Amino acid sequence: MLDQIDVNKTVDKETYRAARENLGAELGKLQRELKEEKIPVMIVFDGLDAAGKGLQINRMIQALDPRGYEVYAAREATEDEVMRPFLWRYWTKTPEAGKIAIYDRSWYHRVNVERFEDEPGQRELAEAFKDINSFERQLTDGGAVIIKFFLLISKKEQKKRFKKLKDSRETRWRVSAGDEARNEHYGRYLAYNEEMLEKTDTDFAPWTIVEAEDKDYAALKILIETVRQFKEALEAKRAAAGKKTAEITELAPLKNGVLSGVDLAKTMDRETYKKEMDRLKKRLEFLHSEIYRLRIPVVLCFEGWDAAGKGGAIRRLTSHLDPRGYKVVPTASPNDLEKAHHYLWRFWNQMPKAGHIAIFDRTWYGRVMVERIEGFCTGEEWRRAYGEINEMEAHMANFGAVILKFWIHIDKEEQLKRFNERQENPEKQWKITDEDWRNREKWDAYETAVDEMLVRTSTTYAPWIVVEGNSKYYARVKILSAVADALETRIKSCN
């Protein structure tokens, strides 16, 4: 397909200058409107080496308010980025509402440049395409606009531009051995890009192919397309706002609830508890050093009823771990910056690098629990979140992460007992809030939501472990044992 495109399209200077002035003014106006409507925009510039991505980005931004955009150059991953799942460095650079992020190359680097340099297996390649599409779909479902340009030039033109760059001392550094190798094998590299375009050209994030041999023609096409998509995004946002109606979400109980079958009578005496904890802590100390040696990332998620014992379990878990190798991430209500991003953005920022442990005290599952119950998101948003969460966890698992998710379960009577104990103890009163009492009044609704969450998001790669929590001793031992067993299994598979 790409080899059939006429890359020799041109525009005369006079036409270009007149159109550029008009389109530039319109683009600036639309940027201000996008800001007012709080629409995040992502503009991707990809394509062949020396096709003029940097030049075209520079021309575009002349019309924009510099306070409203940021440009990212996606070249070779840094040491820190290499130790993360490949989408981490892009999730962390997604724009907040009303801002524009411009990418000089992007997440597509994985399926064109990296593919050319190191042929991946078919499974790895398929997973990369799947991850990219889910990444873009999640962001656009969350309200973002993604505009993607692929700049195309011929092999002859590319070679000519390389020569010009190399002939100058100031610019020869811009031509790498990889660039020249991709020119030498132009046909193979073009085929990789064609497959990329075919598999990632979606209705929510379509590609625009830009004939880039005439730089003015390319700039004009980019401006026209950007203006068009900005207008469409604004029209869609305003139309949706006009149709918005109050939504009532009914929480119909599941026929087979998970929590109702949990045996909360399980217990453990203090002597057995102390022996087990001593054994487990020594075991975890060793396993922690091994996952660091083998560069295995670990994600541990703690959810449960208020006063179920999440904090106590986390403290016991970390008591014999090297503090340089783990991070506890407490999750509170999102702040203004976090609210201005996709709801998963703040969690992607906290994902661990290879060899490290991230321990989340409450998690992204707030979207399908508290946000669902309290009406902080729409029914469409929390129902969509099950698939989005599974995809995020799958991406981490494909990176090699061990993922365990704990729901610490207690009954209503035990919770009331613990609430009263906190209320009566001056040293623990800070642990109990009015919100805890309000949440307790909605126990049945929360139980319904938790049951559905457990069923829809417990996977082979990121399982839910329901912990019988009425006995704190029993719960802590079960949690530490599960973590130790999972780490040991993964370590054995690596040796």
What's the number of domains?
A: 2
Poorly predicted ranges: none
The CATH superfamily of the largest domain turns out to be: P-loop containing nucleotide triphosphate hydrolases
Report the sheet-strand fraction: 5-15%
| CATH T-level fold name of the largest domain | Rossmann fold
Instruction: Give me the strand/helix succession.
Output: HEHEHHEHHEHHHEHHEHEHHEHHEHHHEH
Structural class: alpha/beta
Summed over residues and divided by their number, the pLDDT gives a mean of 94
The percentage helix is 40-55%
**In angstroms, what is the radius of gyration?**
26 Å
Could you give the order of strands across the largest sheet?
2-3-1-4-5
The main β sheet shows up as: 5 strands, parallel
The CATH architecture name of the largest domain reads: 3-Layer(aba) Sandwich
**Head-to-tail CA distance between termini:** 46 Å
The count of β-strands is 10
Walk me through the topology.
Layout: H1 13-36, E1 41-47, H2 53-61, E2 69-73, H3 79-82, H4 88-91, E3 100-104, H5 113-117, H6 122-141, E4 145-152, H7 155-166, H8 177-184, H9 186-200, E5 207-211, H10 215-243, H11 270-293, E6 298-304, H12 310-318, E7 326-330, H13 336-339, H14 345-348, E8 357-361, H15 370-374, H16 379-398, E9 402-409, H17 412-424, H18 434-441, H19 443-457, E10 464-468, H20 472-494
Parallel strand pairs: 1-3, 1-4, 2-3, 4-5, 6-8, 6-9, 7-8, 9-10
